[in-house]
Specification:
By secondary structure, the protein is of the alpha/beta class. The protein has one domain. It is 37% helix and 18% strand. It has seven helices and seven strands, in the order H-E-E-H-E-H-E-H-E-H-E-E-H-H. A five-stranded mixed beta sheet has the order 1-7-6-2-5, with helices on both faces. It has a two-stranded parallel ribbon with strand order 3-4. A hairpin with a 4-residue loop joins strand 6 and strand 7. It is globular, with a radius of gyration of 17 Å. The two termini are 25 Å apart.
């Protein structure tokens, strides 16, 4: 198996050192995993990854991000940002948000994106590792309102691969665009726990 990581383009937000990247690469390869596809040269994006059916997903995702040297910013409840955790959460790259309303959350995240030179927001469309009847639309509305593309990643446990499936530019028609996004995943994913696979992704499996 080829032990190769895609090069991280200049515009993409980065973190870590050559040593930390090498350390994460060795751990990632030790598990027998690889990354396929090219990382798009974008300063700002919403990065989504599916399917999410296990806590193990986070481990492989963390190793891949560290091995690439990619800086991913995620969302966290604002009440977590209290001493002594605030400095650590800021360093990790977590945006404090109020989750009382979806529109309010979107506005907060878009405002942060607009005030930042380089930022990739990482999100799991399922919103949970357990069975979901539908995907949450927050990732789409954040990308559309901020005027930035969506970068798609897929876990493929059968091939032990994290695929980068390219970019998608939202048009504002959520239902039509979601179908197009889902088509990118056909044949490029397999889940850790089949019983917890979200229904929209189950429908894609039936198409294979």
């Amino acid at each position: 198996m080829s032990q190769h990581f895609p090069a991280l383009p200049e515009q993409v937000p980065q973190r870590g050192t050559a040593l930390s990247r090498l350390f994460c690469q060795k751990l990632f390869f030790a598990h027998g995993w690889k990354v396929s596809g090219e990382i798009p040269n974008l300063a700002k994006a919403v990065a989504i990854v599916s399917p999410h059916t296990s806590n193990v997903d986070a481990w492989y995702g963390f190793l891949a991000i560290g091995a690439l040297g990619l800086k991913i910013t995620v969302l966290g409840k604002d009440n977590l940002f209290k001493p002594p955790f605030r400095p650590f959460l800021n360093w990790v790259g977590i945006i404090p948000v109020h989750r009382d309303s979806a529109h309010g959350l979107t506005h907060e995240v878009v405002s942060t994106i607009q005030q930042t030179d380089k930022i990739w927001i990482g999100m799991a469309p399922e919103g949970t590792r357990k069975h979901a009847t539908k995907l949450k639309s927050g990732f789409y509305h954040i990308a559309y309102d901020a005027g930035i593309p969506i970068v798609m990643f897929a876990f493929d446990y059968e091939c032990k691969t994290i695929h980068c499936l390219g970019t998608f530019h939202p048009t504002g028609d959520y239902d039509v665009d979601l179908d197009k996004i889902m088509q990118r995943y056909v044949g490029h994913f397999s889940q850790k726990n089949p019983d917890w696979l979200a229904e929209p992704l189950q429908n894609l499996v039936k198409k294979n």
